[in-house]
Known about the structure:
Layout: E1 4-12, E2 18-27, E3 32-36, H1 43-51, E4 58-63, E5 66-67, E6 78-81, H2 93-103, H3 108-121, H4 137-149, E7 155-159, H5 167-184, E8 187-192, H6 195-201, E9 204-209, E10 212-217, H7 219-224, H8 229-234, E11 241-246, E12 251-254, E13 257-260, H9 267-272, E14 277-282, E15 288-289, E16 295-307, E17 312-318, E18 321-327, E19 338-344, E20 349-352
Parallel strand pairs: 3-8, 3-9, 6-7, 7-8
Antiparallel strand pairs: 1-2, 1-4, 4-5, 9-10, 11-14, 12-13, 14-20, 15-19, 16-17, 16-19, 17-18
This protein binds adenosine-5'-triphosphate.
Amino acid sequence: MAYLTLKNINKIYPNGFHAVHDFNLEIERGEFIVFVGPSGCGKSTTLRMIAGLENISKGDFLIDGVRANDKGPRERQIAMVFQSYALYPHMSVYDNLAFGLTLQGVDEDVIEERVLKTAKILGLTEYLDRKPRALSGGQRQRVAVGRAIIRKVGVFLMDEPLSNLDAKQRVTMRSEITQIHRETKATTIYVTHDQTEAMTMADRIVVMKDGYIQQVGTPYELYFNPVNLFVAGFIGEPPMNFITATVSEGKVSVGGNVLDLQHVLSKEKLDSYEGKEIVVGFRPEGIVLGEQSDAYGIDAFVELTELLGDNTNVYVNIGEDRAILKVDPHDTPKTDVNIRFSIPYDNVYLFDKDTEQVVTEPKRK
Ligand code: ATP
């Protein structure tokens, strides 16, 4: 049986706004789940319903198979780390960590042991006497995480816990949280709008948009087998390139380059798109410069190049359309020249223009 079960969960706010629609998910003990999606997609609302901070309008939330909709936050054995650290400013790091346990009436000796152990895991040992104002953003964030993990609850919920940190601190804290999860093996649900955080931290990612789950899967599955245009465009940086074209005799013309779609789609499916528009997708990193076998050759015009160090982003025009190509910095083309590149058939995705669902077969299992 799954540890946490969300069955057809809906949230309708008192003003009538339907923020979450039929959310279904089963979470196993020890999993690191990330809810990701653009602002307003319902991530925090769902997390708050799990925490018991927001009531569930419709649907069932089960913990170990037992309905928990009506249980209070404490009864649910859930700890939450918020975006704002919510530390007590007048208390030392030690007291901030100890506070929850003191309230529960835990023995002083046990508290000390747990505070010291938590501080060690989080690298806070030397800061235990300091007040929060004398800590960096990253250190404060660690205290906030520490306050949650010290409680030894079943589930940790984190709502954009890294958003107040600068880019460098975020990268460090990202791997620290992953490390803490590896050590504590605590079931964790983590909310972010940042697809890189989702990809690097999650066992499984839940992609949301407009209150609906778009896809649930491992980072690998979402990257290689996105089910629709939204997920394909949301996961991956820079995002997947999309070009809309009309199918004629099983082929499309992309900026004058004729692509025979039989190489990537069964004849049966292809026939159903005859005369219709279809969206051709390929990732910036899914191309090779020059010619290659088993690939579509494309002529393009280089508008701009951006050397990023480990790669170069090349902005090209393909006829009227634009695309970004990710190339080795040593192969950076000049600007204002024509180039030819190839998209291996394996790296081509086709999407239905109307339903926005992928129509090519999954790439990799
Ligand atoms: P963000 O990343 O911006 O926090 P989110 O995905 O976490 O976004 P939610 O905070 O869950 O989004 O909000 C989902 C939707 O519900 C938004 O459109 C928001 O405006 C709306 N909403 C949130 N709280 C309320 C409320 N109390 N009453 C009415 N609508 C609300």
